[in-house]
Every structure is written in structure tokens, then in C-alpha cells.
Amino acid sequence: MLTLLITGATGYLGSHLTHTLLDAGHRIAILKRTTSSLARLDACLSRLSVFNIEDGLHLPFQTIGHFDAVIHTATCYGRSGEKPSEVFQANTVFPLNLLEAATTFNTDTFFNTDTFFNTDTIIYEYLNAYSLSKRHFMEWGKSFSDSGKINFINLKLEHMYGAGDDSKKFAMYVIRSCINNVEELKLTLGEQKRDFIHINDVVSAYQYLLDNSNKIERGFSKFGIGTGKAVTIREFVDIVHRLTDSRTKPIYGALPYRENEIMRSEADISGLAALGWNSRYDIETGLNQVIEQEKKHP
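Above: the chain's sequence. Below: its structure in C-alpha cell form.
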């Protein structure tokens, strides 16, 4: 059994990780804002130690004692109108303060969820500040680990999708549009390639790295979290359209490519594969599962 501190546990990825790691027998504390809803954690709240960021980042360490690892999933995309300074505060200053606290209390490992260039989200215009702030923190993590203070494992997450996720994300926007048979779905030509990964595979990868952390070289290390197989946006939409038997009309080319559009984003999963991990959901299996769940719980 490990003792773990998770940030972002009230969010989509964090809540899935929290449930899974609790069920695996680990002791979990979460660090959240006082305003964060605990709805995603209702079923397991009695088994968690809950701390508020506003009460001080040292409090979990002082109360619980030693943590084997911090798993940092909290993030701010900037989609709610946050200023760049607020995005920087959330994505660089906050985790840096947490990293300092973890180092002070001799935490062994810090798992960081790094940025993916999700250029197909509705919130793309905010991602420059988001990406820059996340990159700054990764560099701080590398600096800390290079000095021997803590192991820093940087996880570059590709385009995660799953039932119940935010409709502002491209995958769920397309899925719900097709399920609801919206009249038109305006898209680019869809030649961009993206690595879509199911939430269950994401959680599996995190858990696998945690369970095999003794096999990972100490200091700074990085892993791509994805399937390692990119598909075009057009292929993705066409699969969703077919699986939902949708009456929605995809209009390819209705939108221009964005400036500096990334035409290929695919995870390098060689590090995970070397440890023995492989994704379980191909694109059709994963989408079919999500579509069925979305239809049951719209």
C-alpha cells in the first residue's frame, strides 16, 4: 500500500484516478480548492483525507506524514476567461509550491500531468498561455530532480476522451453532437492526425507507472500517454458518425485550419511499452463504450 497525494481529484481525470487507486488499496489524500465540487467523489469520500489548498500546502504533509508520491493532475486551461497571470499562478506557481513542500517532507516521486497540444478543442485560443505555463513547471521539475531532491516523472497526456467528460473538448463535442443529431457539424478538412486515448487506458497507464516506479530511472523521466496510433480528425468523426447512426451532417472544410496548426500529434509510448504496458482500447472499442454510456446517461 502506498500513501498518495492527488491534486485535481475533483476533476475528470483526477476523480477516475482516485477511485481506481483507492480500490487498489492505496491510502489517498486529495488537495482541492474550497470551491471545488466533490460530486465526482461522492461514492468514495468517506475513504479519503481531504485538504483545502487555502489552508496551506504543508498541511497534508504535516497531518498524514510521509507520502510516497504526489500525483498532480490539476490544471487551468484558461477557458473561463482567466488572465495569463492567473493561468500562470494555477499551472506554474501552485505546483511549484507543492513541489517544494513535497521535497521538504521527503516525498519520493512527483508525477506531473503535462500539456498536450489539443488544437481541436473549442478552447484552443487559450492554449498558448496554458502550454507555456505547463512547460515552465516541467522545467522546474527537471531542475529539482537534477539536483537530486525528488524523482520527477513527466507524463505528456494525449487527447483523452471518456463518458461524462467536458463537451468543450473536441472528442465529446463530436460524440454528443452526433448522438443528439444536431443538423450540421462544421469542421476543418480533418487531415490532422491525433492520438485519442480512452480514460480507462489513461488511468491504467498512471497506475502501471506507479506500480513500476522502482524500475524507472531516478531523477527526471518522461512518458507519453496515448495509444501510439494517431488517426485523422476526419476518420475519428466518421467512426463516431457511423457508431451513433447519426443524422448529423459533417461539413468538412467549413472551417479553416488554425494558424500554425499541428498536423500530427502522437504519443511516444516506447517508455511505457518497455515497462510492459499497452493500451486496451482501440479507437472503435473505446468510442463504442463511450457512446453507449452517453446514451444511457445523457
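The domain at 75-296 is CATH 3.40.50.720 (Rossmann fold).
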